[in-house]
């Protein structure tokens, strides 16, 4: 079983757990406080959801409500039993993350840090991750095994270059990952980041400089981080009681573009539904495109939402425009370029140590 299917199995277990329904109830009710005395809870929900970082936002906001008083004077932390419930939901997600990364955490902690989907967020109290997950350890094993047996994971974990990267100062490793992540996140979907373009030229050219090898290593690590990020998104969707968005013949108006370039495959489409009423924020979510009747298209693909626009028109009705990046069977949105990297042997490189 591949990682994507194993994560969906986890989501089904979450949906069958009656105890978890209390999480969805809390998240849904927070922004809908009707009484004046409860307005602080609605303000809390707005702040916690604003950064689109799942349960992490609720936990951070709860411990830092005083920082928001100037803009939200009525904001107040949650009740102890409520924050414990959210901590358990967050721990349910993090149990998968740490299970997938435990070998890296043990052997290559600098890389493990930047492969964690939450590595760039503000620090939260460690006790939250130590809360009791809603699932048993055994429930995660299939997904963890699928993640670790992927060609992408094995390439990075067994690479001699990975040992070398671990000798680089931690801040430099974080800068390397952070700069490439930013470039990829801000690059228009139909264009290719300069760093990725330069790397693929080196890969096809058959000659890699040390900088190219390091960039390839970084890109593999980011691809694994993105895979985990998408898994976290799916688990969050299940934990807040929502279903996967399916775009099919019942709601699709048009598929406007379906292209691929050297780093990913992307789809632009229009739907006649609006998807803004849930507890997720659409952008970053995983959706399914299941279309078999559109002219020239027979599609069954999963995609990560890169952009979303809802249009309200009295004449034409309500519509939604999506731009999606297709994810593969391991939830990897960068499979076009990672397949190329995996197929190549890295040349040996060394780090020359200099004095302080």
What percentage of the residues does DSSP assign to strands (E)? Answer: 5-15%
Low-confidence stretches: none
N-to-C span: 49 Å
The overall average pLDDT, rounded, is 90
Q: How many H/I helices?
A: 13
Gyration radius from CA atoms, angstroms: 21 Å
Number of strands: 6
> What pattern of helices and strands is seen along the backbone?
HHHHHHHHHHHHEEEEEEH
Shape: globular
Q: Can you summarize the main beta sheet? A: 6 strands, mixed
Helix amount, in percent?
A: 40-55%
Instruction: Label the structural class.
Output: alpha+beta
Strand order of the largest sheet: 1-4-5-6-3-2
Description of the molecule:
The chain is of the alpha+beta class. It is built from 13 helices and 6 strands. The chain starts with a helix and ends in a 14-residue tail after the last helix.
List keywords for this structure.
356 residues, alpha+beta, 13 helices, globular
State the gist of this model.
The chain has helices spanning 3-15, 21-29, 39-50, 55-63, 80-107, 109-115, 137-148, 151-157, 160-165, 170-186, 194-205, 210-239, 335-342, and strands at 245-248, 252-260, 265-271, 286-291, 299-313, 317-327.
Q: How are the SSEs placed, and which strands pair?
A:
Blueprint: H1 3-15, H2 21-29, H3 39-50, H4 55-63, H5 80-107, H6 109-115, H7 137-148, H8 151-157, H9 160-165, H10 170-186, H11 194-205, H12 210-239, E1 245-248, E2 252-260, E3 265-271, E4 286-291, E5 299-313, E6 317-327, H13 335-342
Parallel strand pairs: 1-4
Antiparallel strand pairs: 2-3, 3-6, 4-5, 5-6
Helix pairs in contact: 1-7, 1-12, 3-4, 4-5, 5-6, 5-7, 5-12, 6-10, 8-12, 10-12, 11-12
């Amino acid at each position: 079983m591949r990682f994507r299917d194993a994560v969906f199995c986890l989501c089904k277990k979450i949906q069958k757990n009656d105890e978890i329904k209390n999480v969805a109830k809390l998240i849904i009710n927070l922004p809908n406080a009707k009484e004046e005395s409860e307005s602080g809870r609605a303000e809390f929900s707005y702040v916690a959801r604003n950064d689109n970082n799942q349960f992490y936002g609720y936990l951070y906001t709860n411990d830092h409500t005083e920082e928001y008083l100037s803009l939200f004077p009525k904001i107040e932390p949650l009740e102890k039993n409520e924050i414990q419930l959210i901590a358990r939901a967050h721990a349910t997600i993090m149990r998968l993350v740490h299970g997938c990364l435990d070998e890296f955490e043990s052997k290559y902690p600098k890389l493990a840090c930047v492969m964690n989907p939450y590595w760039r967020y503000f620090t939260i109290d460690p006790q939250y991750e130590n809360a009791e997950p809603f699932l048993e350890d055994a429930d995660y094993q299939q997904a963890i095994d699928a993640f670790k047996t992927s060609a992408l994971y094995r390439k990075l974990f067994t690479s001699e270059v990975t040992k070398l990267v671990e000798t680089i100062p931690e801040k430099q490793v974080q800068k390397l990952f952070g700069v490439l992540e930013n470039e990829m996140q801000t690059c228009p979907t139909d264009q290719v980041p300069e760093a990725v373009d330069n790397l693929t030229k080196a890969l096809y050219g058959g000659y890699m400089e040390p900088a190219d090898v390091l960039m390839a290593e970084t890109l593999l690590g980011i691809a694994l981080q993105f895979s985990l990020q998408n898994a976290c998104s799916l688990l969050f969707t299940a934990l807040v009681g929502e279903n996967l968005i399916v775009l099919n013949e019942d709601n699709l108006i048009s598929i406007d573009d379906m292209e691929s370039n050297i780093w990913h495959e992307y789809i632009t489409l229009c739907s006649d539904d609006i998807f803004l009423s849930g507890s997720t924020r659409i952008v970053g979510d995983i959706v399914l495109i299941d279309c078999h009747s559109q002219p020239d298209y027979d599609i069954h693909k999963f995609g990560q939402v890169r952009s979303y626009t809802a249009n309200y028109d009295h004449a034409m009705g309500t519509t939604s425009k999506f731009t999606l990046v297709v994810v593969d069977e391991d939830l990897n949105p960068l499979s076009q370029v990672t397949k190329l990297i995996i197929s190549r042997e890295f040349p040996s490189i060394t780090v020359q140590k200099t004095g302080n």
